[in-house]
Structures are given as C-alpha cells and as structure tokens.
Amino acid sequence: MRIDIRLASLVLVMCVLRSADAGRIVYTESEPGVVPGDLFVIDPDGGRLNNVTNHPASDSDPSWSPNGREIVFASDRDDNQNLFVVRADGTSLRRLTFDIESEFMPSWSPDGARIAYAAMNGTQYDVFELSPRGQNVRRIKVDAPGDVLYPVWSPDGGRLAVFLSAENVLAIHDIESGDLTRLVEEVSEQKPAWSRDGRQVYAERWANGWELTAFDVDGGIGRRIVTGPWTYFNPAPAPGGAEIAFTTTIVKPQDVIKVRDLATGRERILVDSPHGKCSWNGRTPHAPSNRRANARSRGDG
Questions:
Q1: What are the pLDDT digits (tens) for 161-178?
Q2: Fewer CB in a 10 Å sphere around the end CB: N or C, the chain?
Q3: How far apart are CA 230 and CA 152, in angstroms?
C-alpha cells in the first residue's frame, strides 16, 4: 500500500496534556492546495490560541514531549517529509532527520528519551526510533508484512500500538520481547490511542457502521464508546480518562473534533472547521519502563 502523506490530513488535531491540570492542546490546521499546515496551541476550552510554526510548508503529526515544553512534528518544508522539534512558544526549531524518504507519525516516549515514527524503508513503511536530538536512529523490528504505521507508545514505554496496513489490523508490539499481538481486524487506518492506565487501546472500526471502541490489550474485547451514521476516528482520551476527544464527520466534507464525557455521554465541540483529526496524548502517573528496545539498526532486515 502507498500513502500520500501530503493529503493524509486536512485538519489534524493532536491534544496533549502539559501538566497535572487540563494542559494545552496542539493541532495542525491545513487544507491541501489552499492553506498550508501550521501548528497551533490552544486551551482545551478554546481559549489562548497561538500559531506555533507559522510557515508556508505543511506541518503535521504533532506530539508533545512528556514535560510539555517541546513538540515533535513532521514537515515538508524541505520538500521531503522530515521530523522537526520546536518549543511550545514557537522558538528553538531544530531538524531531527535529513533523509530523502518520507518520515512522519512521530510519538514521543513517556520517558522523553525516544521518538518513534514511521518511515519508508525500501518498498514499505517501517517503524524507527531516534533520540530527541536526532541521534541513534534504530529500526524497531515489527514482525508483520506490509506497511507498519501509526506507532504510539504505551504509558509505561514498553509497548507500541501499531496499524498493520496489509492486514487492516490493530496490533501491540512488545519492545523487549519483539512479540506482536493482533488485537482486532477491520479498524480504520488512523492513529490509535492508549488509555491512561495502559489497559486499553482506542480505535475506530467497522461493525455494520463505524464505531469508536476501546479494546482490552490483554484480550481484545471491545467496549463501544460512540456509534452512529458518521465516522469516529483519531480517539484521544483526556488526562484521568474521564473524557475522550475524537473527530467525526457531521456534514461532509466538514469534520469537527468533539470531547465526550464517558460517564454521562455529553459532548461538546472542541474544534469546528473543515476536515479534522484528533488524538490527545499526555503524561500519566505511571513510571516509564526500564525495558530497552529490541531493535535493529536502520537498513537491517
């Protein structure tokens, strides 16, 4: 499968906790051919909107550092899609990768020491990691055919949730052992999200209609969160797990990002603009795992 990363998202919203309170949210808003993608930071209640990158290129896939000071993202500002880091106030931009192949979908590890991402490796996309300074690039060997996309660290840093494109499957990769557990089929090709306690992974799947579902990591049993006539993708559990943000298409082609109270079912619109994607990653009270990556150097088989 080949993907056009320039058209992969028209408005991307990544929501990340910065501190013990509600924190702030980072998102990318773009419209291919009309408006380039810029990173914005906003309060969860819609206040204090700031443009972080303000660049004519397309910036996408933002992910907060665990301390909330920096944001890693993908950008085509040098023609090829590479990874960059910028401070939350828009200063101290630095480039992490300098490859001619596309690199995107970064996810900052809970201990702050690693950034996982997807990159072209020969004829397919694989998962790699590198340090926040762009050093020690290593391939994380995921034993699956075809493209491996959307790596997302577990709260303890010991596992990655990934999307197996050839099988249309959501899976969990154990960093230390290399074991791969396939959770569920018929999920959409969107970024999954971990619950704050690391026991579940949220994803959108098809079951006589699209639905947003929480899958138990140990057994794959699903708990339906949202269902209906629309799509419900890029799930984003809030700090503490009481709410979840997600993107839904209410009136095509317009997407909105909603936040849903998991106890009451009440919803509010967080971002109302053409086309949207959302994930809300943040710090957790869990200590990072000391397990290190069972990975191979980039280019090894």
A1: 999 999 989 999 999 999
A2: C
A3: 25
pLDDT 10s digits, 193-248: 898 899 999 988 877 777 888 899 987 678 888 877 777 777 877 777 788 878 78
| 3-state DSSP assignment of residue 165 | coil
> DSSP characters for 256-285?
EEEEEETTT--EEEEEEESS-EEEEE---S
Question: CA 96, CA 240: separation in Å to the nearest integer?
Answer: 32
Nearest in space to 247 (alpha carbons), one of 214, 294, 282, 279: 279
User: Could you confirm whether domain 5-296 is CATH 2.120.10.30?
Assistant: yes
Q: What single-letter DSSP state applies at residue 192?
A: -
Lookup: tokens for 134: 């762009």
- Nearest to residue 293, comparing CAs of 138, 186, 169, 90? 138
Residue 260 has pLDDT above 80, yes or no: yes
| CA dist., res. 224 & res. 228, Å (int) | 11
**pTM for the model:** 0.82
